[in-house]
Amino acid sequence: MTQASIIDGKAFAEGLRGKVAELAAKFEPAAGRKAGLAVVLVGEDPASQVYVRSKGKQTVACGMASFEHKLPEDTTQDVLLALVDQLNADPLVDGILVQLPLPKHLDEQAVVDRISPSKDVDGLTPISTGRLALGLPGLVPCTPLGSLMLLKDRLGNLSGLNAVVIGRSILVGKPMAQLLLGENCTVTIAHSRTQDLPEVVRRADIVVAAVGRPEMVKADWIKPGATVIDVGINRLPPAEGSEKGRLVGDVDFADASTVAGAITPVPGGVGPMTIAVLLRNTIVAAHRNADLALAEDAI
Ligand SMILES: Nc1nc2c(c(=O)[nH]1)N[C@@H](CN(C=O)c1ccc(C(=O)N[C@@H](CCC(=O)O)C(=O)O)cc1)CN2
């Protein structure tokens, strides 16, 4: 039985952060200030708190300024929009990220829409989304861009490959499909209403799973030798006697590894790329905002 090679997102992310740090070190004397990232967290969601803490630490470790804004769970839409306006106007802030999901009473899309496109390091505003769809340069959502970087590093040219993206979220599925289309893949977006999903996935040279259903994709869904990118991060219920459940992806890793050519693990695959690409997008935005040249394709 063959065994898939493991795509090490943690190591790749470390390399990317190293490149960001080099650029940030050169940016500071050229611009007369550090590149800056503002992260907004509303409420007490434990996973979001961990991600936001990690973002702050990694921003500072790369030599950029981190501005953290923590708001209570009962924050009103008006207060949140006023904070986004304030960050849009702040010349020390190059990138703004509102951690998702927001508490249910808030209108997520309206908040994202308020972010200035020049500071949209999450790539979620209508302008960024439209530019991606048109194939124009812009800021691209972090998880899909990180997944594409891993794919290109593993496979080189993706042109002509069949890609199936499972999931159609704004954060991952849709932008991922656009990025793969931009690489001349033949792209299928599968979702909860797709008929005979295993059969659709079996045609794919590249599978990107982003549905949020623990270990849904099995070995017999995978074309032998396919490259599998697992975007899912699901915490299983804790086993008896332990406090925390195991973290698994949307792909049954042990099972799919017997058929795939290469596969990302969870943890240590796509997850670490999400924050590394956020830092990459921040230094890119900083150069644009300060009118400094940067070879964006090189990072
Ligand atoms: N505004 C945004 N909100 C959210 C995004 C986003 O890109 N923009 N993505 C996710 C959460 N996320 C970052 O915000 C994120 C998820 C996972 C990881 C990560 O490194 N995961 C580790 C495991 C971590 C653990 O033990 O729990 C891994 O996979 O190895 C980083 C960032 C939703 N919200």
Strands, total number: 11
Bound ions, cofactors and other small molecules, one mention each:
ligand LMY7XDAE
**Which structural class do you get from the secondary structure elements?**
alpha/beta
Arithmetic mean pLDDT: 97
Instruction: Summarize the helix and strand pattern as letters.
Output: EHEHEHEHHHEHEHEEEEHEH
User: What is the CATH architecture term of the largest domain?
Assistant: 3-Layer(aba) Sandwich
| Proportion of residues in helical segments | 40-55%
Q: What is the domain tally? A: 2
Q: What is the CATH topology assignment of the largest domain?
A: Rossmann fold
- Radius of gyration of CA atoms, rounded to a whole number: 19 Å
How many DSSP H or I helices? 10
CATH level 4 superfamily of the largest domain: NAD(P)-binding Rossmann-like Domain
Beta-strand fraction estimate? 5-15%
Q: What's the assembly state of these chains?
A: single chain
Strand order of the largest sheet: 1-11-8-7-5-6
> Can you tell me the CATH class of the largest domain?
Alpha Beta
* Uncertain regions spanning at least 5 consecutive residues: none
Q: What is the makeup of the main sheet?
A: 6 strands, parallel
How widely separated are the two ends? 37 Å
General form: globular
Pathway: One-carbon metabolism; tetrahydrofolate interconversion
Protein name: Bifunctional protein FolD
EC number: 1.5.1.5, 3.5.4.9
Domain Tetrahydrofolate dehydrogenase/cyclohydrolase catalytic: 7-122
Descriptive report:
The chain has 299 residues and is α/β, with parallel strands linked by helices. The protein has 2 domains: 31-116, 3-Layer(aba) Sandwich (Rossmann fold), CATH 3.40.50; 142-272, 3-Layer(aba) Sandwich (Rossmann fold). Helices cover 41% and strands 15% of the residues. The protein contains 10 helices and 11 strands. The chain has helices at 9-31, 46-61, 77-89, 108-114, 126-134, 142-155, 173-182, 197-202, 253-256, 270-289; strands spanning 5-6, 36-42, 65-71, 95-98, 162-166, 186-190, 206-209, 227-230, 234-235, 247-248, 262-263. It has a 6-stranded parallel β-sheet. Strand 2, helix 2 and strand 3 form a beta-alpha-beta unit. Helix 6 packs parallel to helix 7 (173-182) and helix 6 crosses helix 10 (270-289). It is globular, with a radius of gyration of 19 Å. The mean pLDDT is 97. Bound molecules: the ligand Nc1nc2c(c(=O)[nH]1)N[C@@H](CN(C=O)c1ccc(C(=O)N[C@@H](CCC(=O)O)C(=O)O)cc1)CN2. Ligand LMY7XDAE binds at residues 51, 97-100, 122, 142-143, 171, 233, 247, 266-268, 271-272, 274-275. Residues 51, 97-100, 122, 142-143, 171, 233, 247, 266-268, 271-272, 274-275 line the site of the ligand Nc1nc2c(c(=O)[nH]1)N[C@@H](CN(C=O)c1ccc(C(=O)N[C@@H](CCC(=O)O)C(=O)O)cc1)CN2.
